[in-house]
Amino acid sequence: MTTTTTIVTQGDRTARRSTRRVEPIYYLFLLPSLILFTLAITVPAIIGIFFSFTDSIGIGDWSFNGVTNYVAAFSDPAILQSYLFTFGFSLATVIVVNVIAFLLAVGLTSRIRFKAGLRTIFVIPMVISGIIIAYVFLNAYDIIVGLTNGGPGTATRSVAMTIIAGFNGGDYAYQMANATIFFVVAILISLLQLSLTRGRNAL
């Protein structure tokens, strides 16, 4: 990547403006990742959205049924409950994590007796292999799912669990519509977050 500096004179002020020209080799390095992302993420997502407008069960014959799956999803109590649980769990998690992070930050910078112990706890995840951490959390997740199985009923079943359960039950197109709705909701939340934090990042 090469940088070109241009001096711009406006009245009594002289400003120095830098323009960067991207070398073609960078695009060459980017191409394999872009191809893999397209084949593994983008193409399956487009195919899934396409089949959400059908009555497909994942295999065999299928036919278009318009927005029937979407209308049914918005009136399905189990799906509505899964969204309610997911949003509630996410909100509670964000609040708890931020409160713990704030208390930990205060503890690390305060003159308290257990400051050294707090620093040790804070550094441990940085020195433990990420694979070990992922393994521990994966088993913890399996235990939670094994204990609750989304129950009682579907009270603790998240959107992702609802989609996977639907796939296993043959509701491929129906749950693809659910997944598409969830994707749109996630995009809208992300855009809302960006709009709310844009002014703060500029300060």
Attribute tags:
203 residues, 7 helices, extended
Helix/strand layout:
Elements: E1 2-10, E2 13-21, H1 24-51, H2 68-74, H3 77-109, H4 115-127, H5 130-148, H6 159-168, H7 172-202
Antiparallel strand pairs: 1-2
Tell me briefly what this model is:
The chain is mostly helical and about 200 residues long. Helices cover about 70% and strands about 10% of the residues.
Task: Give a written overview of the molecule.
The protein is mainly alpha-helical. It has a domain at 70-202. 69% of the residues lie in helices and 9% in strands. It has seven helices and two strands; from the N terminus they run ββααααααα. It has helices at 24-51, 68-74, 77-109, 115-127, 130-148, 159-168, 172-202, and strands at residues 2-10, 13-21. Strands 1-2 form a two-stranded antiparallel sheet. A hairpin with a 2-residue loop joins β1 and β2. α2 (68-74) crosses α7. The longest helix has 33 residues, at 77-109. 11% of the residues are buried.
What is the overall shape? extended
Average pLDDT, rounded to a whole number, is 79
Q: What would you call the structural class?
A: mainly alpha
Strand order of the biggest β-sheet: 1-2
Distance between the termini: 29 Å
Largest β-sheet summary: 2 strands, antiparallel
Unreliable spans: none
**Share of β-strand residues:** 5-15%
